[in-house]
Structure formats: C-alpha cells, structure tokens
Amino acid sequence: MLSKNELKEILYDSLKELGLTENEIALYLVSLSLGPATITTLAKHMAIPRPNVYKVIGGLEKNGLAYFSERKKYTRTFMVESPRVVRDLLKKNKEELARCDQKIVSSLPDLLTLYKQGELPTSIRILQGKEQFLQLFFQIIEEEKCESQFFGSAHDFIGFISWQEEREWIRQRMQKDIKLRALLLPSEDAQILQATDAKELRETRTLDCVQPFSTSFQLFANKIILWQPKAPLAVLIEDEYITQMFRSMFEKMWDASKVCPK
Fold this sequence. Notes:
By secondary structure, the chain is an alpha+beta fold. The chain folds into 2 domains: about 5-85, Arc Repressor Mutant, subunit A; about 125-260, Endonuclease Chain A (Endonuclease, Chain A). It contains 10 helices and 10 strands. The protein has helices at about 5-15, 20-35, 40-45, 50-60, 85-115, 130-145, 155-160, 165-175, 190-195, 240-255; strands at about 65-70, 80, 125-130, 145-150, 180-185, 200-205, 215-220, 225-230, 235-240, 260. It is rod-shaped. About 20% of the residues are buried.
C-alpha cells in the first residue's frame, strides 16, 4: 500500500500535468486532507492572507476542481472535488491532445509550407544506427506534401534498410499520394524499382558516367537528408537555402539523365 507522501506525490504530478500553479496544488492537497473548511482555516494552514486564498480558489474553480457550500456568504465552507475528477480531467486532456496531435500530423505538410526560415540558424541533426535511420526515413512521409527526390545508390540504401522496410515505406507513401523521383546509380535494385514505377507513383532514372559511391541524399519539404549507410548515419539539414541549392543540382542532373532501360 502506498504511503500518504507517495499518494500526495502522485496527486501533485497529476495536478501539475493539468497546468495548476504551486499554490493551487498546495490548496487542493490541504483541502483534500481537511475536508470542508472555512477561508480562515485554509489561510492558516497555508500561511497566506485570506485575499490570496480567494485568488487561489478562483484558479481551482476555473479548472473545475473546487466549489463552495450553499450556505450564506460569511459561513460557507470550501472544498475540492474528488481525485476521481482529477482523473477525469486528465483523461479529457489526453483525448484532446490526441485529437490535436492527429490534426497536426495530417496537416504537417501544409503547415511546413508556411514556415519561412529567413535568417534563423540552420538546423543540423546527426542520427546514427538503423533505428534512427528508419525513423528519419519514415518522417519524410509525415512531412512531405507532393513529391520527394532521391539521388544516389539504391543498392547500398536498400541493402542497409532491407527490401521489407523499403516496400512498407512505398506503401505508406502511396497511401498519402506522395510521388518520388529517383536518380540512381545503375544496379539491379534500380532496375527492380524502375519495373514498378508506374504503379508505385515513382519515376526512376539512372546516373551514368560517374564513379560508383555508396551514399545518397533525399529532398523533402524544406529539408535534405544525407544518407551514409556504411557508418551508418544520416545527416538531416533544415535550411531552405541549402535545400534549394541541392534541389537545383538534382533538377540539373535529372534533366541530363536518361530513363532507366527496361
């Protein structure tokens, strides 16, 4: 069985989660122990002036956690709602947060188009290991609205993440109607992808007359990812000017490339 202090800590954390101030939490805990009490009694236990107690009570009432008795004004007592109400409020907040999260996830591509970096500093993140590699890969689907561009070695990239993960990514990308243009080094994997271009919202072309390399980059939203599957690591750069430069380079090489032969 939990001690009184442990129970108070649980209530404290829950009330903090609801956005209550320290004084509001203190008054709730004091009143919970005292039961119905006068303002004078509460002021004495909290060691604060009566007018301040009324202010704190106002905060609890606003959150639906307190009420006065129905007696006459100068004899009424104050008490807080049951911890069950705290639980119900937490549940309601959690449900509302879940709804907001769903809305922002579905609207994220459109919201990102409103974001202008201007003179804000460049954001650079280095992610290591397969788990972070894959998380970033699937983040593209969450944030891109229309089309992503991939440049580099499909052989090394898919060889690292596996065809199973690649196909799941393709499935989710198609579900959101996101197109992909892929400019790839010649390989068997490139040919496999090209063979299903028409039904997988993708156009694949080959990058000829270059020395082989194992890395790649991918453009989406206002970001670019540098993929290095040998380490493995990925560098995520959020900078509209750098992204614009890489996108311009991609378009130039795309125009100079040819469709991968069947």
